[in-house]
Design brief:
Histidinol_DH_monofunct, oxidoreductase, Hstdl_DH, zinc, Rossmann fold, zinc ion binding
Length: about 425
């Protein structure tokens, strides 16, 4: 890992760069696949499944029989763990429900807001080197709580044309409507335009590699909403002398093993912690089955020493991490001061992987600095806030003159007339 001591603010933008390709690097590939899927539907889906996944499928939709077989393959222990996680996620997201808001702004003028579910949503579940069945819970549970009518799930098949059994079990448990063996850019394109088999959806959710991330951004240019630009995983840890180095190292490695384009960063005001964590990282790295992947991610990662907590917090807010762990005697300073982060983990005994699986918070979070302007997935992600108003005869008398005056000032006579007629 690269060690950086007392970086000057003018160098922070360079330090905060992620090891990902830019939109322009991938744009032509995404455009080509989107165009083919739009024009050729399932035929294009099959072509790219063969090209990227090395599999030819007669039917891309998962059958009920396949789901039942998958349920039998999942161990009782894993089923219990998934059910515990689902329960916690349900509790946390159900608590986010809000009541209808009703306000009489003026006598005779009543305005209110109600939330209604997005009818059709698409969930993208990565299934390559790490089949993320946990993401099914993070997306399908709030979708179901919100009342979405159709929940479509796409996940890439393995070389045998199958989706991971735990993904299918979790999807069935959470009430997913339809499941498709489609991955990558073509899955996002399929849900964007719809094909003979895959339904078109109104909003697409889920993390993925940089190709999926840019495909989602391209989908948003073609009439489909997306949750956020959620790309390769990243973690930033602030640790002082109260942190336990082996814990910090384990958290950094837990994100580094996600993918070669992941990034992890340690920021500290203690040089001993910096050195101890580095030593622990290399010790623990040797024991990881995904050592090769984590090793590449570690090369893209940084150990940063700064003199003061104020500088540390400023740098962290500039970076805007997806995941932010605070291990500090002054944790309140960082908890109160953090402005840009997807999800925050506080104290030595709060590993980031708790949020990934079972604490109850959502792990679908903004990456690449998008935490400066995006929230992570929550119940409201699956809802639309609709406003209503009802005005009585007395109400239009109370606000009519103001409407006439404003409409006339903007030169919109028909707007004025719509009120004038009612006032008469």
């Amino acid at each position: 890992m690269k060690k950086i001591y007392n970086p000057q603010p003018e160098t922070w933008s360079e330090i905060c760069k992620r090891p990902t390709q830019t939109f322009s690097d991938v744009e032509e590939t995404v455009k080509q696949i989107f165009k083919e899927v739009q024009q050729k539907g399932d035929k294009a889906i099959a072509k790219y499944a063969s090209f990227f996944d090395g599999v030819t499928l007669e039917n891309i939709q998962v059958t009920q029989e396949e789901i039942e077989m998958a349920k039998n393959e999942v161990t009782s222990e894993l089923k219990e763990a998934i059910q515990l996680a689902k329960s916690n996620i349900e509790q946390f997201h159900a608590a986010q429900k809000s009541d209808k808001i009703v306000v009489e702004t003026t006598i005779g003028v009543t305005c209110w807001q109600e939330k209604r579910p997005i009818q059709k949503v698409g969930l993208y579940i990565p299934g390559g080197t790490a089949p993320l069945f946990s993401t099914v819970l993070m997306l399908a549970v709030p979708a179901k709580l919100a009342g979405c009518q159709e929940i479509v799930l796409c996940s890439p098949p393995d070389k045998n044309g199958k989706i991971n059994a735990a993904i299918l079990y979790a999807a069935d448990l959470c009430g997913v409507s339809k499941i498709y063996k489609v991955g990558g850019i073509q899955a996002i394109a399929g849900m964007t335009f719809g094909t003979e088999t895959i339904p078109q959806v109104y909003k697409i959710f889920g993390p993925g590699n940089q190709f999926v991330t840019i495909a989602k951004q391209f989908a948003s240019q073609n009439g489909v909403a997306i949750d956020m630009p959620a790309g390769p995983s990243e973690l930033l840890v602030y640790a002082d002398e109260t942190a336990i180095p082996s814990f910090v190292a384990s958290d950094l490695l837990s994100q580094a093993e996600h993918g070669k384009d992941s990034q992890v960063i340690l920021v500290t005001t203690n040089k001993n912690i910096l050195n101890d964590v580095e030593e622990e990282i290399y010790k623990q790295l040797k024991e990881l089955p995904r050592q090769e992947i984590a090793q590449v991610a570690i090369q893209n990662s940084k150990l940063i020493f700064v003199e003061t907590e104020k500088t540390a917090l400023s740098l962290i807010n500039e970076y805007g991490p997806e995941h932010f762990i605070v291990c500090s005697k002054n944790e309140d300073y960082f908890v109160d001061g953090i402005q840009n982060a997807g999800s925050i983990f506080i104290g030595n005994y709060t590993p980031e992987s708790a949020g990934d699986y079972a604490s109850g918070t959502n792990h679908t979070l903004p990456t690449n600095g998008y935490s400066k302007s995006y929230s992570g997935v929550n119940l409201d992600s699956f809802l639309k806030a609709m406003t209503f108003q009802k005005i009585s005869n007395e109400g239009i008398q109370n606000i009519g003159k103001a409407i006439e005056t404003m409409a006339e000032a903007e030169g919109l006579q028909a707007h004025k007339n719509a009120v004038t007629l009612r006032l008469k």
